[in-house]
Write a structure and sequence with these properties.
CATH architecture of the largest domain: 3-Layer(aba) Sandwich
Largest sheet: 6 strands, parallel
Oligomer: single chain
Number of strands: 8
Strand order of the largest sheet: 1-6-2-5-4-3
CATH class of the largest domain: Alpha Beta
Number of helices: 15
Order of helices and strands: EHEHEHEHEHEHEHHEHHHHHHH
Structural class: alpha/beta
CATH topology of the largest domain: Rossmann fold
Distance between the termini: 53 Å
Strand content: 5-15%
Shape: globular
């Protein structure tokens, strides 16, 4: 059985308790925190003592040790469990042998950050939770549902603007999100409703969001930059590159007169609203603007790594180089 939805997967665990659990689970989630949550959810339902759990990493995975543990019965009852994380780091042969045969005693729970080609084999013998192809807007919807559930379970409610404000200020990862929601619930105390001003009072926009916003403003709007230190400079580079690559793809599709139904294959993770906003901008700027930007970005990054510490000057040069001809 395969699931691509966390809620459906959780429901399947609940319905399987206490005697119908699969002996094999494969968890495909890129986010380490969310993957560990899925592991913990399974282990809570199995209610197995820690002495029966053996943990491995795909980095140095030894199949002999894995299967020896799975075949070892406990004098105190209960079936052994093997938890393997970072399975994508194991040798291909080891990955294939892991799911080659069904497991009839004990439980194998494996997690991976990326595609391994093992989903079909794992699904044949057990259950797969695969969120590796989850689109950004699907994750946003899921995080919103998690937010609503956590607030509701705390006996609180939240104004509609609260979730949108959190999305604007935070990276969309579960660890950050859970932490911020817990802080909000604690902050309002006996008050029943979370308000937008509560978010502004205790939630600070994280650095990745700031980098992303700055990169958007520089590439698409031509905004000037403030003071720049080493950490900020190197944090901003990937965000700038991402915006330039997005613009180049859109501009190239427009210049090639590619049918709109083919765009999804080239831009699989771009929000529809973002695409709607950036398409006319990319058409105006043209592909040469983004190509020049990528080349100039490569040049200043190379200079920064070969001795130049004038980070502000490098970014001023970058901005001037692309915008003097691009607008």
């Amino acid at each position: 059985m395969r699931y691509s939805n966390r809620a459906a997967f959780a429901k399947s665990l609940k319905s399987a308790a206490p005697n119908l659990f699969s002996h094999v689970y494969l968890i495909g989630i890129a986010d380490d925190y969310e993957r560990s949550q899925a592991f913990d959810a399974i282990l809570r339902y199995l209610a197995t003592p820690d002495r029966l759990i053996q943990r491995f990493s795909g980095v140095d995975l030894n199949l002999k040790e894995v299967f020896n543990h799975l075949q070892t019965a406990s004098l105190f009852g209960g079936e052994p469990i093997v938890c393997i994380d970072e399975l994508e780091k194991a040798a291909k042969k080891v990955q294939q042998e892991l799911f080659a045969e069904p497991i009839t005693f004990g439980y194998l729970i494996a997690g991976t950050r990326s595609k391994t080609g093992l989903s079909a084999a794992a699904e044949k013998h057990g259950i797969v939770l695969d969120l590796l192809d989850e689109k950004p807007w699907e994750k946003e919807k899921r995080l919103q549902e998690q937010f609503e559930s956590k607030v509701r379970n705390a006996g609180k409610s939240a104004r509609a603007e609260v979730i949108h404000l959190l999305f604007e200020r935070l990276d969309k990862d579960s660890a950050t999100f859970d932490s911020e929601v817990d802080k909000l619930i604690a902050y309002i105390g006996d008050r029943s409703q979370i308000l937008p001003e509560d978010v502004m009072a205790i939630s600070t926009a994280n650095r990745t969001y700031t980098f992303w916003q700055t990169a958007e403003e520089l590439i698409w709007e031509g905004r000037e930059l403030g003071p720049m230190d080493d950490t900020t400079f190197h944090g901003l580079i990937p965000a700038l590159r991402s915006q330039l690559q997005l613009g180049l793809k859109i501009a190239s599709l427009l210049e090639q007169n590619a049918p709109r139904d083919e765009w999804a294959g080239v831009l699989p993770k771009v929000f529809p609203k973002t695409l709607e906003k950036r398409t006319p901008q990319a058409a105006k700027l043209g592909s040469s603007y983004f190509q020049r930007g990528l080349q100039t970005l490569f040049d200043i990054e190379l200079k920064s790594r070969t001795g130049s510490q004038q980070h502000g000057a490098l970014l001023d040069f970058f901005r001037a180089k692309i915008h003097v001809h691009g607008r």
